[in-house]
Amino acid sequence: MSLRKRLALLIGIDSLIVMFSVFVGNWLIAPAAEIVTPALVITSIGLLVSHHIFAHFFKLYKRVWQYASIRELSSIFLAVTLSVATVGVLQLALYQVIYSRTLLITLMLHILLIGASRFSWRLYRDMKFKSAANKKRALIIGAGNGGTMVARQLLNSEMSELHPVAFIDDDMTKAGLEIMGVPVIGKKENIPTVVSDKNIQHIIIAIPSLSKSDLNELFQICSKTKVKTQIMPSVEDIMSGRVSVTQMRDVQVEDLLGREPVELNTVKIGENITGKTVLVTGAGGSIGSEVCRQVSRYSPDKIILLGHGENSIYTIEMELRTKFTDLNMDIITEIANVQDKSRILDIFKAHAPDVVYHAAAHKHVPLMEKNPHEAVKNNVIGTKNCAEAADETGVASFVMISTDKAVNPTSVMGATKRIAEMIVQNMGHKSATKFVAVRFGNVLGSRGSVIPLFKQQIASGGPVTVTHPDMTRYFMTVPEASRLVLQAGSLAEGGEVFVLDMGEPVKIVDLAKNLIQLSGFSEHEITIKYSGVRPGEKLFEELMSKDEIHNQQIFPMIYRGKTPPINIQVVTELISTFEKHEEDYLRKEILDIAHFRITALQNISAVK
């Protein structure tokens, strides 16, 4: 129906209701009196005119009544009350009397009939869609604002495949009540029973304020039912119009990490990046590319994407050019190897960066055990080249991204990253550039992480391979790690090793079990197989050694590790020896080389 036809229909209905209310009200008070009197005619005309004026003022003709709620009912009450009050004033002015009883009955009839005319369409739609028998029976967890919003949309949507049949909520004051005809019938402990008794086919978690640890607990309860479990979109996404309430999403592994988001000091980060020239090494990698995305949000004047792989650098360049078209930001790509000292120095001289984020590194533990010389060349010599270039060209701050495997390392990768940390720490003590290392654990979704491997194995029908039942790791998401890297860089004074709070360590086998459940399978369908600890791996990772522990946070989720004394001469001699005799090392047995690297590192760490 067009707007003009709809307006004409509503005005016509309201006019009939007004006239009916006036005449019936008058007849109920004085049934034997004359039906039509001058006073009644004046009252009718006055009420008709005033009703349309106030109806227009309160937009009763522009509301979508299929979604009518208390707000719309309030508007009807105000419009009708004010129009009747206006007629009362008119009667007093013309006849020096107010026919109060007649007006009171007229008011009640007026409100009742206007309300009924408006809400009847919503009642019709609710009854129509509630009776849909071909929809899946849904259980909504959370009877608050989020759950109510989800239930309303499911009940009012013809396209939805879900029909809400019950709420679960721990608030005992809501137990036994109904929301839009949907009963609240239990607490979270009752979920398995409710699913069985009500023949539930779908579970929706609709508590936007739920902490991740509580979400994890809730998901574990829901997973026992074998019923598909999803969560409602965030309120921000709904309000911004990016998604609708009915667009549920699957629970992700990231949702079950038990970590809460931290508020960043955007002003401090902006001071370090906005309007500056920022260079990111390893810009095509998982961490490096996310650092580029986060940096771009703070409007640098120029961002240099430095990497060895042309495809990955091209990919992140195109993404930034697409996403940040509204920013006046130069995006420059440089294909270079951090092992090439002269090339790196030329790039630093050409662009004179203010801030450098050094993410270029080899990170795969078993591969580096087989190729230790490449770990040394990339992680140690590459870091040294970039750090020295930053010092020589007057870079303001240099942030190296490190790993928890650098703590008491048992692998070549961890050993080389610890040596790289030492190089950065030493540069921080003697250079005008603020050098800092940021250390954190495993990153979900990064290249080489277990999540893509587990997903591939599940898609192939299993088994999912876990190295050891007691293997634990610290985890955080790529965006979270990258944001905290920017925050730590803005706090740098020079020479620090910042350690990100990774929360509680997670058993890899638990991660595998969660991913199997999230994929809609049971452990009987997708089995878990233990493959044994790989070379260089530890069962448990540490974020700080006992000599580095500093209890005080300098920022939420960021700690400053103590920096024990190091003998940089040993590091320098190690690098010099490697560069001088690299060909000899390449001809040696791999295990002997790996042993030499770790032994050398232990000698360095022992120097006080």
From TrEMBL:
Domain Polysaccharide biosynthesis protein CapD-like, residue spans: 278-561
Natural source organism: Bacillus daqingensis
Family: Belongs to the polysaccharide synthase family.
Keyword Magnesium (UniProt): no
Entry protein name: Polysaccharide biosynthesis protein
InterPro entries: NAD(P)-bd_dom_sf, Polysac_CapD-like, Polysaccharide_Synthase-Rel
Keyword Membrane belongs to the record: yes
Keyword list, A-Z: Membrane, Transmembrane, Transmembrane helix
Pfam family, one: Polysacc_synt_2
